[in-house]
Specification:
Layout: E1 2-6, H1 11-22, E2 26-31, E3 45-49, H2 55-61, E4 67-70, H3 80-84
Parallel strand pairs: 1-2, 1-4, 2-3
């Protein structure tokens, strides 16, 4: 089964990725150009550069995906409205 993970390069998301690997899932992670990939290095994970704000890039990464684990989130925002975006 193919699983899409958003936020897989983060602390919590990388631990979810580890559990999914242990359970034998085929994993695809959405990453950004600025993502720190230290916790995904050398793991059997397909890394796809995409944006959660770009519908077309999301359509592409969702191809053949059975489950989605949405773990991405903001850790910093300049104002309250940015958190709500």
């Amino acid at each position: 089964m193919k699983v899409l993970v958003t936020g897989g390069s983060g602390f919590v998301g990388s631990h979810v990725v580890d559990l999914l690997i242990e359970r034998g899932y085929d994993i695809r992670c959405i990453v950004r150009k600025t993502s720190n990939l230290q916790w995904l290095k050398d793991k059997p994970v397909e890394l796809v550069e995409a944006s959660l704000f770009d519908k077309e890039s999301l359509r592409k990464v969702l191809t053949d995906v059975d489950y989605i684990f949405h773990i991405a989130g903001l850790t910093f925002a300049r104002n309250f409205d940015e958190f709500l975006k």
